[in-house]
Amino acid sequence: MKVLVIGNGGREHALVWKLRQSPRVTQLYCASGNGGIAADAENLRVDLKSLDSLIALAQEIKPDLTVVGPELPLTLGIVDEFSRRGWSTFGPTQAAAQLESSKSFAKEFMQRHHIPTAHYAICNSVDEVRAALAHFHMPIVVKADGLAAGKGVVICKNKEEAISSAGEMLSGKMVGDAGSTVVLEECLQGEELSFLVLSDGERVVPLVAAQDHKRIGEGDTGPNTGGMGAFSTPAMLDPQMQNWLLQHVALPVVAGMKAEGAEYKGILYAGLMMTAKGPMVLEFNCRFGDPETQPVLMRLESDLVEALEASIEGRVSDGDFRWSNDASVCVVMASGGYPGSFEAGKRITGIDQAESVEGVKVFHAGTTQRDGAYFTAGGRVLGVSARGADLKTAVDSAYEAVSRISFDGAYYRKDIAARGLKKG
Ligand code: AMP
Description:
Helix content is 30%, strand content 27%. By secondary structure, the chain is an alpha+beta fold. The structure holds adenosine monophosphate (AMP).
């Protein structure tokens, strides 16, 4: 079968790598792909921000299955448009993707359906922010309503900071139109966990859990990024907690969306804070996470195509995924300066040597290939990933691989999975 993956980052490289292992996949395309993806799939040019461009491409290559990586095409309605034409496409519709594309929609939806989440207020002006702040303790979290690639959340120590951040969002200065509405949210304390399920609109089946590292600096300091690394272990989520999250988060979301006429198919990703009072939902994503997909798919032993089809065809069941009991980790190597400004075009060396470390796979995020060599082409450049019998083995292998790769200005966190290692 012919499969088309939409996207160009590390998550899409992991999807392509896993789909390539399916005996059913005979032709694999990625639009627009990146330097490393080219080794596993045929890269095709497309404008990921344009539905017309995506439709024209699919019309040309006629895929049997399209797998959408990033949130933007889902929010633009790629699944609606492709499905209307009879093209089998994995992911939620535009209406269902509102769970990610509008934080105010998600908060009000959670309130309607009694899904545990932080206390919040939705504001459309600085005056509304000032008035709402009276009802919150400090620190407080200020969030842009729309898609902001991880850059629309600011944790503010006091009211002045909150007013200033909300003002920058509302004026369009910080994240453009995504900030024309802001959500104020009680600041929660605890450990974060990503809980992902596969849904067919009615039934759900969990994926293994993962933890990511959003901040740029070691010890979770500095500004938020798209994600600097992630890891996944069998011990991360015990069966009781997994069942609780299914009953109190995943199933109510899927039932609630169906009841509201926006059936939710695809990956439902709940970003959770495990607080002293129990798990609370911080956000929903309507697709695989990046970089969590890299360690999660490294632990998947069954055929990904079968699972994606079960979601599209409305027959999700417990047998859709078979997981390894190994641990896995992904260390992101980024361009110096990220998440601020950075220079691209640096030559990358050592990827083959890195991949010769046992259990290692290097997923490309922001790279291009020229004359047989790889060059940096983005903020997050590589996701150096490893699987091992235990977390320490996986982490040691990943960092050994990282030490073999170099490019001018390379930056990575040295403490990815440190919390997991401490727990033993
Ligand atoms: P979000 O895009 O909503 O997941 O927010 C990005 C990151 O900001 C999260 O992964 C958390 O680290 C942090 N964050 C978001 N909401 C809260 C909250 N209510 N309390 C504490 N931290 C938060």
